[in-house]
Design brief:
- The protein is of the alpha+beta class and 658 residues long.
- It contains 18 helices and 17 strands.
- The protein has helices at residues 18-28, 33-96, 101-110, 151-159, 163-173, 179-195, 199-210, 222-236, 242-254, 262-276, 286-306, 390-460, 466-497, 510-525, 546-562, 594-597, 608-613, 621-631; strands at 117-122, 125-129, 216-217, 220-221, 313-319, 322-330, 334-340, 355-361, 372-376, 382-388, 506-508, 531-536, 542-544, 569-576, 580-587, 635-641, 645-653.
- The strands form five sheets. It has a five-stranded antiparallel beta sheet with strand order 2-1-7-6-5, with helices on both faces.
- Strand 16 and strand 17 form a beta hairpin.
- Helix 12 (390-460) runs antiparallel to helix 13 (466-497).
- The two termini are 34 Å apart.
- It binds adenosine-5'-diphosphate (ADP).
């Protein structure tokens, strides 16, 4: 019986055939999927950039729409603001007609926001509502008090410097039921005590005076005068309490505690600063200062009305960086006016979920805004600023969605392209390998056919010497056997691949089978100097086709010999763990590169070792070994170290004994 190798000859033969170099080149070509991946990448980039452009356009459109929406909203709000102004002016007219103007004004003032104040003047009396919104008043009526009552005391104080006598005269007045007389007396007593050097008595008297909180005297206020007097005393006596009292005084001044005019306010503030230093103490609220200034400006308007000017009017007023609107109305004996800040118009500036709207000082509208409109409202000293709130968020969400979809589509496309490309590349490679295989097979067929033809011609024409005829006949037989083997192997492979032949399975003594095949193979390679060693254990039997298993083993032996050009030693080992039986074929040949290990069992695949050794073959041998192993419910594995050799192991399930 001849060898089982499918296409290879008995031993490794060198051949520089064009088929093999073609095959190797085909194997080394860069895989096509890369090309497809590059194409996919190009497509994806274009796709994503198109999507991005779409998103940008959408954003631009959205912005334009937002600006338009803001324009419409701005016009509506502007009209509402004008209406609000008209209402406020009507309110002032209404106040002027009220018989109890002060009560009505107080009620009106109570509803005003912190940036506005109402001014009502009736005759010489001028009131601001709410009073706490300003720190000083435009004008304060003078309260000189009944100066004649204090004539005697002042004569003693100033003409004779007789302070005890002056105090004696003032004491009864300090018990008067009239608070302004009481306040005038206490103020003078304290002064006399001070002049007499009785600091403690002076301080105590100022404390009494201070208790008359709301009483107005000398364009000022009893409490303010008392506290100021205490500070002067403390200053003179160099008391450490000065700083604390002066700071408290300054803070109350900034709060607008007392009805004083601007010059008094400035005087007391400068005194406090003299005691405390310019930077120390509390700072005034700029809004209250601005409102106080605006009230003064309104008082000026009132003077103009009185001098025959227009009875009503409005104008802008700026102070402390704030823009305010002054509106006034008057009758011959009454004057009603408003200092209006933007918050008074807040009810008309109705923002929505779509935009934020506010009134701002005109100067502050230059800041760059995302989507915003800023318009000046007729008659108002502010700009109406609208800023889109939702449009940005909406288009961002849309942009993210489109972007996400684009990326997802691109990824899916890339994956599809990759797999299609991979499949196409595999198909192309297989077709190329098959073409190479046909080339190799036809070469294998042609060689023995040419020998047979040549020998038979020589024999027919009687050109062979009689003593050599026997050798020629033997050669003829050998070549025709080789041809038959080749054809049978091809057919066998076909049969094994289509899983036919299972019906021929029977219990096999693997050790015996291997021994026979190895012996045959030794015979085959005897001339080439290749040694084959065999180690067998006592192993269980295997159910299978003896011829097929023999063919698989022959292929492994043939490869071991082919790919071991220098150390020509092969070891065959049969063993078992009880459940499985394995046949291992170990050589000390060129070995197999790591990257080739996974592919050598594929049909028509030849690896680097084939190129290194120049051994001929078709790449079908190992594919057939795997088919045979799997047909028996087993497997084939390989372990190899390049340069040191390889071990191929076929494993079959052991037959279960019943
Ligand atoms: P071939 O006809 O090329 O020998 P096989 O399917 O039998 O085809 O083997 C596939 C490839 O695996 C071979 O071309 C060779 O590169 C590699 N190969 C197989 N057996 C061995 C071995 N024992 N040592 C080194 N390389 C091997």
């Amino acid at each position: 019986m001849g060898g089982y190798s499918l296409l290879h000859g008995a031993a490794a033969r060198r051949d520089n055939g064009a088929n093999e170099s073609l095959l190797m080149r085909a194997l080394q070509r860069p895989p096509r999927p890369l090309l497809f991946a590059a194409a996919a990448l190009l497509f994806c980039t274009t796709f994503v950039s198109l999507a991005w452009r779409l998103v940008e356009q959408d954003r631009h459109l959205e912005r334009q729409r937002a600006v338009e929406r803001l324009g419409t909203a701005a016009a509506a709000i502007s009209a509402e603001l004008s209406r609000r102004l008209t209402t406020l002016e009507a309110d002032l007219d209404g106040l002027l007609g009220q018989p109890e103007i002060n009560a009505a004004a107080a009620a009106f003032g109570a509803r005003l926001p912190a940036d506005s104040v109402l001014l009502i003047a009736e005759g010489d009396v001028l009131r601001l509502h709410p009073r706490r919104h300003v720190v000083h008043l435009p004008r304060v009526a003078s309260h000189d008090g009944p100066a004649a009552l204090f004539g005697d005391a002042e004569e003693a104080e100033f003409a004779r410097n007789d302070y005890p006598a002056a105090i004696e005269r003032l004491l009864p007045l300090a018990r008067s039921a009239d608070t302004s007389i009481r306040a005038g007396a206490l103020l003078r007593i304290a002064r006399n005590f001070r002049k007499a050097g009785r600091v403690h008595d002076a301080l105590a008297t100022y404390d009494q005076l201070s208790a008359l909180r709301g009483v107005a005297i000398l364009n000022s206020n009893a409490d303010l005068l008392a506290r100021y007097g205490r500070c002067v005393l403390l200053e003179n006596s160099r008391s450490g309490n000065l700083a604390r009292e002066a700071a408290a005084l300054l803070e109350d001044l900034h709060r607008g505690t007392w009805d004083i005019d601007l010059s008094a306010y400035r005087f007391y503030v400068s005194e406090c600063q003299r005691w405390l230093g310019p930077k120390a103490g509390s700072a005034p609220s700029l809004r209250r200062l601005a409102l106080s200034d605006a009230a003064r400006a309104l008082d000026g308007e009132r003077e103009r009305v009185r001098a025959g000017g227009e009875a009503s009017g409005r104008r802008e007023f700026r102070a402390e960086g704030e823009s305010m609107l002054l509106v006034w109305r008057s009758t011959p004996d009454r004057f009603a006016a408003l200092v209006a800040g933007p918050r008074l118009f807040a009810p008309a500036v109705d923002a929505s979920w779509m935009f934020d709207a506010r009134l701002t000082a005109r100067a502050g509208t230059q800041e760059p805004l995302h989507v915003a409109r800023s318009i000046t409202v007729p008659a108002l000293p502010w700009a109406l600023e609208l800023r889109a709130l939702s449009s940005g968020a909406e288009s961002t969400i849309r942009a993210r969605l489109v972007g996400l979809m684009a990326v997802a589509a691109a990824v899916m496309f890339a994956i599809t392209i990759y797999f299609i490309g991979g499949a196409m590349a595999r198909e192309t490679k297989l077709a190329r390998l098959q073409a190479d295989f046909v080339g190799a097979v036809s070469h294998e067929l042609r060689t023995p056919l040419a020998s047979i033809r040549q020998i038979s011609e020589m024999l027919a024409e009687d050109r062979v010497a009689a003593e050599r005829r026997a050798a020629y006949h033997a050669r003829l037989r050998w070549e025709s056997e080789r041809l038959q083997r080749l054809v049978e192997n091809l057919l066998d492979f076909q049969r094994i691949e289509s899983s036919a032949g299972r019906e021929r399975f029977e219990p096999l003594e693997v050790a015996l089978l291997v021994k026979n095949v190895v012996e045959e193979f030794r015979e085959e390679v005897r001339d080439s100097g290749c040694k084959v060693m065999l180690h067998t254990d006592d192993v269980p039997s295997v159910r299978g086709d003896g011829e097929m298993i023999g063919r698989a083993l022959w292929n492994l032996l043939d490869n071991a010999a082919k790919y071991s050009p220098t150390v020509r030693e092969i070891v065959v080992e049969v063993g078992s763990d009880g459940r499985e039986v394995h046949i291992a074929v170990r050589d000390r040949g060129v070995g197999i590169a790591r990257r080739d290990i996974d592919v050598i069992f594929e049909k028509f695949t030849r690896a680097e070792s084939a190129r290194l050794t120049g051994a001929r073959g078709s790449g079908l041998g190992l594919a057939m070994v795997r088919e045979i192993a799997e047909a028996h419910g087993g497997r084939v594995a390989v372990a190899s170290t390049p340069g040191e050799g390889s071990t191929f192991t076929i494993t079959f399930p052991a037959e279960r004994r019943s």
